[in-house]
Amino acid sequence: MNITRNNVDALNAIVTVELAKEDYQGNVDQVLANYRKNANVPGFRKGAVPMSLIMKQYGKAVLFEEVNKVLQEKLNAYLAEEKLDLLGNPLPKVTDNFDWEADTLKFDFELGLAPDFTVDLTSKNKITKYTVVADEAMLDEQVEYIQKQYGKLISKEVVAEGDDMAGVFVNEEAGINSEVTINVDAFRTKTNQKKFIGKKVGDTVVVNTKGLFDDDHKLMDFLKVDHDAVHGLEVDVVFTINEINTTEKAELNQELFDKLFGEGTVTSLEELKVKIKEDAEKQFVSQADQKFMNDVIEHIIETTRFELPATFLKKWMQTAGETPLTAEQAEEEYTKSEKGLRYQLIEGKIIAENDLQINFEEVKAFTTDLIKKQMAQFGQLEPSEADVESIVARVMSNQEEVRRISEQVMNDKMLALFNEKVPFKTKEVSYKDFIKEMYGE
User: Are residues 341 and 394 in the same domain?
Assistant: First the structure.
C-alpha cells in the first residue's frame, strides 16, 4: 500500500491511495470462503458449492466491499497521522472504466483544507457596550402594569378610552392572522383610537399598519410578523373585537406590596420603584451582553479575512446530506451557510488560542446553579442538596441537555474573553433607546 498527497494549492489537495492485491485479497478470500460454507444452492451439498460459482455470484460485490473497508481504514489513519485540518469529508474522484482486475488499485480523493489565518481581538473597532437603565417613564409604566395585573377585570359592552380589547388582526394577503389583547391607548394617533371608541363585540375596525404604533417593532408583537417585514409595512388590517374589558386598578397598599415581594420587603411606592428598577436592570444585563457578543462576532467575521475552498465545499454539499443536491441547490446552500462556516473556523481558532476548554465539573456546576435558580422562582429558596443533586443527575443524563448547557458555558467564557480583550466604549441608555440600537435604528 502507498499513500501520497499532492497539494493543489493552500486550500485543496489530492490524496492518492494505491492498494496492492495483498492489501485486500486475503479478506476477500476469507469472506467468500464463509459464503461457500453457508451457501444453499440446489444440486450441491451445503459447503460443497464450487468456488467458481460463489465467485460468479458474489465475487465482485465482496471485492468492492472489502476494498472499500481497507481503503477507508488506511485513508483515515493517514489523515490522522498527518494531522490535516479538513473542511467536509474526502471526496472520491470518479474514474470511468475503473480496472478492478489490475494488480494495483489506485484511488484519488479530493480534500478541502482549512485556511490559515489569525484573529486579532484587539483591533480598532466601533463597538459599544451598553448599560441599560430603567428610567422613570419605564418605572411608571411597570407600576401601572402591576396595578392592572392585580386589579379587577370588568367586562364591558362598548369600547371606551383605556379599555382592553381581545380580538384578531387579519390581512390574508399579507399572511397576518394574529389573536391578541390590545389596549385602545396602544395606537399611536387619536384618529386610530377614535375608530374603536363606541364599538361593540363583533364589530370590525380597519386600520393601516403605517405609523400604527409609536414604535414599528410593536407590529412584531401585535401582528406576529418578522422583524424584516415591519419596516415600511403599509397594509390595511381588519381587527375583529371579540371581547371588551376594563381594569379597576389595584390599590398601591401594603397588602399588594407583600403579595409581590413578601411581607415587609417593600413598604412604599418609592421602594416599589427601587425594587422594579433592580429586577429590570438585572434582566437588561443579559440582553446587553448578548448584543455586545453579537457586535463583536460581526466585527471579527468582517475583519478576519481568509479564503475557503468554495468549489470543493459546494461539490461536497451535493452529497453530504440525506438528500443529494443539484449543483444549483449546493450553490444556494453554500451562499446561506458561508458566514456561519467562517465563524465556526474563527470560533475554533479563538477557543484553541485562548485555551477555552470545558470540563465536566464546569458543566455540572453551571447546571446546579441553573436548577437552584429555577427552584427559587417556584418558591423553593432552600432546597435540599439531595433534591438538587437528583435533578442535576437527571439533566446530565440527557445528552441533548448537556450539549445545550455546554454551549451556554462556552458562551459565558467567550463573553468574558471579549470583555477582557476587545476594546469598546460604554454607553448608558434607556431600554427604549437600547431596543432602537439593537435593531439598528
Answer: yes
What CATH number should be reported for the domain holding residue 171?
Answer: 3.10.50.30
User: pTM, whole model, 2 decimals?
Assistant: 0.74
Q: Is residue 157 part of a domain?
A: yes
Alpha carbon 351 to its chain centroid, in Å, reads 19
Tell me whether residue 131 is in a domain.
Answer: no
Count CB-CB contacts under 10 A for residue 71.
19
Residues 6+ apart with CB under 8 A from 284: 132, 133, 134, 431, 434
Per the structure, how many domains does the chain have?
3
Is there a contact between 227 and 439 (Cβ–Cβ < 8 Å)?
yes
Per-position DSSP letters for 111-161, written without gaps between them:
EEEPPP----TTS----EEEEEE--HHHHHHHHHHHHHHTSEEEE-SB--T
Please give the average pLDDT of every successive group of 10 residues along the chain, which has 441 residues: 94 95 91 83 77 84 92 94 93 87 92 95 94 95 92 94 95 93 94 96 95 87 86 91 94 94 92 95 94 95 95 94 92 94 95 93 94 84 88 93 94 96 96 84 53
Cα separation of the two ends of the chain: 63
Q: Are residues 346 and 428 in the same domain?
A: yes
Within 8 A by CB and 6+ apart from 185, the residues are 161, 162, 193
What pLDDT is attached to residue 33?
A: 87
Interatomic CA distance for residues 121 and 126, integer angstroms: 13
Q: Which domain holds residue 306?
A: 279-438
Determine, yes or no, domain membership for 175.
yes
Distance CA 147, CA 314 (A): 58
Q: Is 294 helix (H, G, I), strand (E, B) or coil?
A: helix
Give the 3-state secondary structure of residue 257.
helix
Same domain? For 428 and 310 the reply is yes
Q: What is residue 435's predicted lDDT score, i.e. its pLDDT?
A: 87
d(CA 407, CA 352) in angstroms, rounded, equals 16
pLDDT score, position 440: 63
Query: What is Dmax (Cα atoms) for the chain?
Result: 101
Rg (CA), the chain: 33
* Cell numbers linked to 2: 502507498
User: Do the domain assignments include residue 121?
Assistant: no
Sorted by sequence, the CB contacts under 8 Å of residue 23 that are 6+ apart come out as: 1, 70, 74
